[in-house]
Amino acid sequence: MSISARLTAVGEELHRGLAGYRPRVLGPEGTRPAAVLVPIWDRGDQVCMVFTKRTAYLPTHAGQISFPGGACEPEDRDTRATALRETHEEIGIPPASVRILGTLDQMITITDYLITPHLGLLGNGGKFTPNPVEVERMVIVPLYKALDMSSFRQCHHWYQGRILRQLALEHDGELIWGATARMLMNFIYSLGPAAKRAIELSAN
Questions:
Q1: What is the mean pLDDT of residues 159-183?
Q2: What confidence category does residue 162 fall into, taking pLDDT thresholds of 50, 70 and 90?
Q3: Which of 29, 76, 77, 164 has the highest CB neighbour number within 10 Å of its CB?
Q4: Rounded to an integer, what distance in angstroms lies between the CA atom of residue 133 and that of residue 171?
């Protein structure tokens, strides 16, 4: 797997930032285990974070922007395997093209999924081939924006007949909100000063 020198440097900084951090582990009954990949990718001009916009006709979280991932299946040996399998199925990146850096805090969604996020670098040779059944389009956000809390703003969002007030990240006219936004903010807090250093490296 080929990874650019810039992405390698960013990955090393992210790994250092998370060193010694113990991800929160939750285990409430009644939730369904799931996992996502938090993909970091060198687009060529700068390092970015990769999201997908889900198609409007999916049974859960339709039309929302999320990290590639989904529910754990019996054949998955662990949540890391789930994240890699789902990433391959959704955007065509094979597991061999992903370098896992670590695990972030678990998160519970309003649909009762218990999500384990895994942070990973995507190899330069990876080519996105979105699954049209699940992915409407790719959403690529520069790392300097995704890891900067000043990029987030308060928003009011209608969901199942009620208003949700929460912080969200706006990019290209889309809102990244809900569990995905919470994962992002948690990632930023977990990194501490390393978030700013990774941002500085991402455009060098």
A1: 85
A2: confident
A3: 76
A4: 23
> Angle CA(74)–CA(23)–CA(95) in degrees, nearest 5?
45
Q: Check: CB of residue 106 under 8 Å from CB of residue 27.
A: no
Cα-Cα-Cα-Cα torsion 82, 63, 102, 48, nearest 10 degrees, comes to: 130
User: Could you give phi then psi for residue 66, rounded to 5 degrees?
Assistant: -145, 170
Average pLDDT, the chain: 90
Q: Which residue has the higher pLDDT, 6 or 125?
A: 6
DSSP state of 150: G
Q: Which residues 6+ apart lie within 8 Å of 55 measured at CB?
A: 62, 63, 132, 133, 134, 135, 136
- Gap between the Cα atoms of 74 and 117, Å rounded: 18
Distance CA 141, CA 152 (A): 13
Q: Quick one: tokens of 71?
A: 């529910």
Please report the pLDDT score of residue 50 as a whole number.
97
Q: Are strands 32-42 and 113-122 parallel, antiparallel or unpaired?
A: parallel
Judge whether residue 160 has pLDDT over 80: no
- Angle subtended by helix axes 194-202 and 178-191, to nearest 10: 100
Position 63 scores a pLDDT of 62
Do 106 and 34 contact (CB within 8 A), yes or no?
no
